[in-house]
Amino acid sequence: MGAVADAWTWLTTGANWQGESGVTARLVEHLWFSGVCLLVSCLIALPLALWLGHIGRGGALAVNVSNVGRAVPTLAVLVLLTLTPLGKQGDLPTIIALVLFAVPPLLTNAYVGMREVDRSVIEAARGMGMSGGQVFRRVELPLAYPLVLTGLRSATVQVIATATLAAIAGGGGLGRIITAGFNTSDTGQVVAGALVVGALALVVEGLLVLAGRLCDPMRATRRTRPAGPAAGAPGGAPAAPAKAAA
């Protein structure tokens, strides 16, 4: 409990929240850095996964290739990139390492979400005269939305937690608080930095859950779906094309 008490003392000391090395400045750096990595990851993974899921070809290979990145520690990738000429490009090595780390959950969940859409619903939508693009926008994407959002939440939490490694490469963020604590043998500061990172990850995930519920394109359908075996079964799904057609 001594380390926790020291961490509480450190967190409640106003001076530790001020200045360029304070918690507030490091928090802003951490959020910006994580946001950039997530944006790049989404731009790479989501269009590819949704397209492959829509056409139903090549997705398994793409998922398996992306999952290879999970077997390689992010720290090892960061160290290797830092030793290359990219190490002279500021935060670029850390961004690349975190993007490689965030792509697999985004790609896998989006592709699986698209492929798990009930084929009978898709055929019904096509039978109503919908084009491939309309089926994608009005049927497949809304039904795949929950898994896509799950992948986004997973990637977000992982990036926020792993972005602390940026401090090793000389970057900013909350990791600098932790490394500074190690350098000065201040256990309270190390624990305080870890607590701030954990709290940030939980808060951001909670906000994503709330935003996901508010932005769910099928929120009304999920809310009014009757209870019973048909509620979660494909049999209740044909309502999606009818709503889309309207």
Automatic annotation (TrEMBL):
Limits of the ABC transmembrane type-1 domain: 27-208
Region (Disordered): 222-246
Residue stretches of biased makeup (Low complexity): 226-246
Keyword line: Membrane, Transmembrane, Transmembrane helix, Transport
GO cellular component: plasma membrane
CDD domains attached to this UniProt entry: TM_PBP2
Transmembrane segments: 31-53, 65-86, 92-112, 159-178, 190-215
Record localization: Cell membrane; Membrane
Any Pfam family: BPD_transp_1
This protein's record includes keyword Signal: no
The organism's place on the tree of life at top rank: Bacteria
Classification via InterPro entries: ABC_transp_perm/SBD (IPR051204), MetI-like (IPR000515), MetI-like_sf (IPR035906)
UniProt topology in membrane: Multi-pass membrane protein
Record-level GO BP terms: glycine betaine transport; transmembrane transport
Similarity section: Belongs to the binding-protein-dependent transport system permease family.
Protein name: ABC transporter permease
